[in-house]
Each structure stands twice: as C-alpha cells, then as structure tokens.
C-alpha cells in the first residue's frame, strides 16, 4: 500500500 | 484524489479567501488573530518545501502556491497595511508555547529522521493547534463577526473532511499515515465547541457570542 512517505496531499 | 479530499481542499481555499476578502473589503482585521495567521504561514512554508523538488500534479503545485501566497498576503495585510486595526490587546496567546513543544515533538515522533520529513511532521503538528490563538481571542472578546465564524466553519470543515478522506484511502488504497490522522483528529476536536455554537447560532442568523 502507499505508505505515508508519499506526500501527495496538501 | 477523492471527493472528500477535493471538497476539503476547496473548503480550505474558501476559508482562506473569505478571510482575505473580509480584511481587504472592510480594510480591517478586527477580531482576527494575527498570531494564528503567522502560524498558518509557517505551516504552509514548512510543509510545501518540496514544491520544486517533488512534482505531484498541476493541481497539487497550484494549490500549494495559492495557499502560501494568500496566507502571506493575509499576514501582510494584518501586520503592515491594516496594522492600525489589528487588535493586539486581545490577540495575546503565547505562540512560543505552541511552536516549541510542537518542534520538540516533531523531532521525537516522525516517520523518518530527515530534515524534510521532520519539517513536514512539524507542519502537521503545528497545523493541529494553529487555530488556538484565534479561538482564544474569540473567547476573550466573547464574540466573533459572522464572516469570521464562516471562515472558522470552512477552516474546521476542511480537516474534518480530510478525516473522511483518510478513511476512504485506507479502505480503497491501503494508505494510512498515523501522524496525519492523529493530528487531524486533534485539530478537528478543537473546533467541536465552535461547530456547536456555529450550528446552533450562526445557522439561525444569530451572531456568534460565547456564553459570558
């Protein structure tokens, strides 16, 4: 799954 | 992207522009906490440092620029252009009591001990308490202008919608970020008292006034 390291949110 | 996050971002954008327009149109920042606006500017600056290094989408980059620019503009209007209308007597929350503990916590509890990650964590923790000076100021003045309460409602709703976004992403994408979720819960809980007053008063056309 997409981990928290993917900062794709504002 | 999902509907909760999109509506959340738009609610956030609406809040920022409602406040900016209120100050610009009325040429006054009475009842608005400049300290909270400084904290929000700090939140965006520390969170969006990856603006030029980590391209996600046009939407993501555009919103980051708009958020930083509009919040800096708000701080400029409050502390420089309309400084005479800034109510410093009621905006007395000691923000160092927020920034220092939040800074320390970001060092202790984070996903990765790297500068960018610690700054992002600092930004997430700070955002959860950044509204406190504003809520404190309203408790001191005992009331808020209707437009300011609309600003707070939109601002509080944005992170509540993000909580729904995280539930959606957990079930459909397996995405989960404990730090963001916990901070988001704290942030939304801080608005509960205000949400109650807003829904029971402002929605019925009354002015938002705290029980004396």
Automatic annotation (TrEMBL), chain B:
<feature type="transmembrane region" description="Helical">
    <location>
        <begin position="62"/>
        <end position="80"/>
    </location>
</feature>
<feature type="transmembrane region" description="Helical">
    <location>
        <begin position="92"/>
        <end position="110"/>
    </location>
</feature>
<keyword id="KW-0472">Membrane</keyword>
<keyword id="KW-1133">Transmembrane helix</keyword>
<dbReference type="InterPro" id="IPR000133">
    <property type="entry name" value="ER_ret_rcpt"/>
</dbReference>
<protein>
    <recommendedName>
        <fullName>ER lumen protein-retaining receptor</fullName>
    </recommendedName>
</protein>
<feature type="transmembrane region" description="Helical">
    <location>
        <begin position="122"/>
        <end position="139"/>
    </location>
</feature>
<keyword id="KW-0653">Protein transport</keyword>
<keyword id="KW-0812">Transmembrane</keyword>
<dbReference type="GO" id="GO:0016192">
    <property type="term" value="P:vesicle-mediated transport"/>
</dbReference>
<keyword id="KW-0675">Receptor</keyword>
<keyword id="KW-0813">Transport</keyword>
<comment type="similarity">
    <text>Belongs to the ERD2 family.</text>
</comment>
<feature type="transmembrane region" description="Helical">
    <location>
        <begin position="178"/>
        <end position="199"/>
    </location>
</feature>
<keyword id="KW-0256">Endoplasmic reticulum</keyword>
<dbReference type="GO" id="GO:0005789">
    <property type="term" value="C:endoplasmic reticulum membrane"/>
</dbReference>
<dbReference type="GO" id="GO:0015031">
    <property type="term" value="P:protein transport"/>
</dbReference>
<dbReference type="GO" id="GO:0046923">
    <property type="term" value="F:ER retention sequence binding"/>
</dbReference>
<dbReference type="Pfam" id="PF00810">
    <property type="entry name" value="ER_lumen_recept"/>
</dbReference>
<keyword id="KW-0931">ER-Golgi transport</keyword>
<dbReference type="GO" id="GO:0006621">
    <property type="term" value="P:protein retention in ER lumen"/>
</dbReference>
């Amino acid at each position: 799954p997409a981990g928290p390291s993917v900062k794709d949110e504002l | 992207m999902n509907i909760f996050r999109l509506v959340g971002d738009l609610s956030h954008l609406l809040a920022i522009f409602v406040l900016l327009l209120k100050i610009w149109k009325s040429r006054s920042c009475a009842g608005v906490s400049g300290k909270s606006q400084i904290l929000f500017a700090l939140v965006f600056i520390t969170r969006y440092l990856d603006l030029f290094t980590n391209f996600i989408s046009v939407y993501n980059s555009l919103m980051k620029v708009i958020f930083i620019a509009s919040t800096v503009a708000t701080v400029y209007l409050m502390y420089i252009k309309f400084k005479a209308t800034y109510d410093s007597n009621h905006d007395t929350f000691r923000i160092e009591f927020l920034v220092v503990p939040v800074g320390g916590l970001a060092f202790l509890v984070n996903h990765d001990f790297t500068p960018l990650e610690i700054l992002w964590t600092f930004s997430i923790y700070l955002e959860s308490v950044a509204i406190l000076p504003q809520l404190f100021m309203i408790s001191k003045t005992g009331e808020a202008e209707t437009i300011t309460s609309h600003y707070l409602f939109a601002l509080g709703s944005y992170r509540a919608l993000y909580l729904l976004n995280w539930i959606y992403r957990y079930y459909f994408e397996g995405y989960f970020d404990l730090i963001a979720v916990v901070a988001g819960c704290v942030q939304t809980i801080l608005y509960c008292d205000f949400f109650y007053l807003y829904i029971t008063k402002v929605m019925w056309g009354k002015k938002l006034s705290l029980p004396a």
